[in-house]
Design brief:
single chain, 268 residues, alpha/beta, Rossmann fold, 7-stranded parallel β-sheet, 7 strands, globular
Length: 268
């Protein structure tokens, strides 16, 4: 079956809810061992137990994803539980709302720490593990997959989402840069840029905000976290074995849609 992950182990960050949780569930259903990582210990414990009470194929790990020590410990916990890591999915993100003039420096920094720095650190840690494991097994190349989940704000501008857009653009470039760096080692690095996903960012909980997004989306609806999970499953699987350095946009056509202007009134 396409997209099966039997024998693979995946770390999913931001897995307490939303897109991260949907990906963790989808990977588990596809046969993978899954480590759900998030700062919300109570939620990830609950969700991991809901997937697998025996902990044979799903465990949780609470960590501050901006701290290298916590991420090293996350990697160690994954190896202790399941011997190796084959897949890394980074979904952890914050909005840090504010426009260019009023945004606090601390909020700008927080957006980069969570959205970019955490991926940078953990990708380094996981890639080193993948390369070392391949060498120990006398394999010429690793067979690893890394997927970063950004947002369409990485290439479109929303004034009161200044830090989100800038940090997500950096994350997309990090994806491409890591893809080139690790290509010879057999590690593929790709991204997904969702737009208008139900429940992802709190702003979409307001009816007016939801309507504004839907009105700008040719498919006339919000996406579901499960649909981003489908894209992540494809990119992490052997079905995408010749794809690296790509950022797939999953937004129902919103990023390519030029809204029609009103018809001009006929000359009298």
């Amino acid at each position: 079956m396409a997209g099966r992950l039997e024998g693979k182990t995946a770390i999913v960050t931001g897995a307490a809810r939303g897109v991260g949780l949907a990906i963790a569930r989808r990977f588990y259903d596809a046969g993978a061992h899954v480590i759900l990582a998030d700062a919300d210990e109570e939620e990830i414990q609950k969700e991991a137990l809901a997937l697998d009470e025996t902990r044979e194929r799903a465990i949780s790990f609470r960590c501050d994803q901006t701290k290298r020590l916590d991420l090293n410990n996350l990697m160690a916990a994954a190896v202790d539980a399941y011997d190796s890591v084959d897949i890394l999915i980074h979904t952890a993100s914050v909005v840090a709302a504010g426009d260019a003039l009023e945004l606090e420096e601390s909020e700008f920094q927080r957006a980069f720490d969570v959205n970019v720095k955490s991926s940078f650190i953990l990708t380094q840690i996981v890639a080193k593990h993948m390369i070392q494991r391949a060498e120990e097994n006398e394999q010429k190349r690793a067979n690893g997959a890394i997927v970063n989940v950004s947002a369409i704000n990485s290439f479109s501008v929303i004034p009161n989402r200044f830090a989100l857009g800038v940090s997500m653009a950096a994350l997309d470039q990090l994806t491409r840069s890591f893809a080139v760096a690790f290509a010879e080692d057999g590690i593929r690095v790709n991204g997904i840029a969702p737009g208008g996903i139900s429940g992802r960012f709190s702003g979409l909980s307001e009816p007016e905000a939801r309507k504004a997004v839907v009105d700008r989306t040719p498919m006339q609806r919000l996406g579901e976290p499960s649909e981003i999970a489908d894209a992540a499953l494809f990119l992490a699987s052997d079905q995408a074995s010749f794809i690296t350095g790509q950022v797939i946009v999953a937004d129902g056509g919103r990023s390519i849609f030029d809204m029609p202007m009103p018809e001009p009134e006929a000359d009298k």
